[in-house]
Amino acid sequence: MQEDTIDVRLIDWNRVWQARRAERSSPKRDADFWNGRAASFAKATAGSDFSDRFLAIVNPKSHWNVLDMGCGSGTLAVPLAKSVASVTAVDLSGEMLALARARCEAEGIDNVTILQGRWEDNWNELGIGVHDVAIASRSMVADDLRGSVLKLDAIARNRVYIVTVVGDGPYDRRLFEAIGKPLNVGPDYIYNYNMLYQMGIPANVAFIEETRNRTYSDPEEAFASVQWMFFGGLNSLEEEKLRAYVRAHLVFHNGWRFSYDKVVRWAVIWWEKE
Hints:
Layout: H1 13-23, H2 31-46, H3 50-58, E1 65-69, H4 77-81, E2 86-91, H5 94-106, E3 112-116, H6 123-126, E4 131-137, H7 145-155, E5 156-165, H8 173-179, H9 189-198, E6 204-212, H10 219-226, H11 236-248, E7 250-252, E8 256-258, E9 262-272
Parallel strand pairs: 1-2, 1-4, 2-3, 4-5
Antiparallel strand pairs: 5-9, 6-9, 7-8
Helix pairs in contact: 1-9, 2-5, 8-11
């Protein structure tokens, strides 16, 4: 008997990606959500070596001008600006951009142009222009993945870099199991890679693994730091279960920390322009 086979080249990966995103536990395209999370996000990323490891893969050149689409609080834009000619940093969150601007001022960086905008906007009207390199790090959250890739590719002279989740990414599955709530992160990097293959783009892939375990001033700050994972909110019973889990897994050593490390994996996907 001949087994049924599926030709991956015939799958509409953009449509599959959209369907998986619709199922995900935490849609994150809301500006108010990111405005509210801006301060804690900046604090969480401040102690990470993600930017150093990403830049080691990119190996930036001094003559480059770079687009950082979905720049957040400047996680990549600020260190990049120290190695390249200029950076255009774009994000939908005004609070994130305010933090990025403040960081630039604090570090004496004057070659970063900050713009507020979304994937769906007309980038010409935003004044983004053409860049040597386009980066979308952990920010490919538009409804149309293919359209977003085409936008990045169109404004990049030399290279495009995309960073996206591997597996559960920054979500802690143990928290969801503790309160009896399902976790559906949505599509991870393999969907992006498969779609690029289907588009005829020969992409490279490298992986970054972070070990996370922040220090908190008190248990309430620790609890607040994980609430973002539950975008739809928690009922009173779920919130109490989450608080109980946090209390049970906190230890004190020069501050409050979880008793275990969270390993987060990212895929860096990039291609050269012909």
